[in-house]
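Q: Got a minute? One more chain.
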Amino acid sequence: MSARSAQHRAGAPAGAAGQLDVLVVGGGVIGLVTAWRAAQRGLRTAVADPEPGGGAARVAAGMLAAVTELHHGEQTLLGLNLASAHRYPDFAAELSEVSGQDLGYRRCGTLAVALDADDRAHLRELHTLQTRSGLDSEWLSGRECRRLEPMLAPGVRGGLRVDGDHQIDPRRLASALVTACERAGVALHRQWVERLRTAGDRATGAVLGDGTELAAGRTVLAGGSLSGKLAGVPPEVLPPVRPVKGQVLRLRVPAGYGPFLSRTVRAVVRGGQVYLVPRLNGELVLGATTEELGWDTTVTAGGVYELLRDAHELIPGITELPLAETRAGLRPGSPDNAPLLGPTGLDGLLLATGHHRNGVLLTPITGDILAHALTEGELPAEARPFTPRRFTAGAPVELPV
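A: Always. Here it is, folded:
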């Protein structure tokens, strides 16, 4: 489909010479995949972000955990998560071929374990919910868990084996998406967006920090936790997105140390969540806290201590590993923990934000959904429960069910 025919079908005005078909505000993995897929559809596309490939994905562990991340009341979101997880093998293969980069995609599975009776009961409830939802999850005894992962503490009381929950390296994913965008002809403007441009009752692009005006038939706001702060967006369509802090540690398994973990290990420790994600390059990602502290991105002694304390109870040998990095980032949370995808009440403005803890997991399907919306002028059926209009004043909130 040509850019002009796509514009016509989407209801966007025909662009003047030099006008973009699509401007994506935000260059994290969500903004980049949206731009890449739009360019593949023949749309003249640009991304505005001071550091394309940055954002929350620089801190994320990269768990593709549609099954073990399931929470009560999020069954509608589960459908979207599963659909994206099913697309990941083909998506990763395509992106790796286009970019020439290894994404660190591993089909290694996940083991979720519990250390005491209360946490075991919580995990049993999760297993019941997974089974009721038709998901593939196997309950294991503590001994069976330790047979799979010998580094686990002797006190492990039981666990869930989920072979379908995989992982990817988000930093490699982001880097590959930058390359894919460049090779698809996406223009990268490495600046902050100062404000949204509007004309009458329509979004018409954006103004950059240096005063440069970018005219666009369609603008996609994909600014992560910053999406709710863009000047010029009418209050009634400003996305209700907030920052949710997460602290993450990166440890290093020394060469010759031998296998430490063969798969992602998650645990409920004293009611709190902790996870360990092993990379093939010897990196071990440990996280993550969930803190409602506004825009604070300070790495705290308490956060590091709690992560190491809980991980040590789970895997005592972890304290022998070198600590390579500490980071804190901001996830974009929404009122119902689900993303805001597609057209808003302002003509010409679309959203791709609010992914919270599922941004990396939902990268493939978000790109497809936004590309469809940009070319067809409407959301595909699977994305309609996630329309930004569910938060419009007076509109019923359809999620979660």
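A: The chain has eight helices and 18 strands.
Q: Perfect, thanks.
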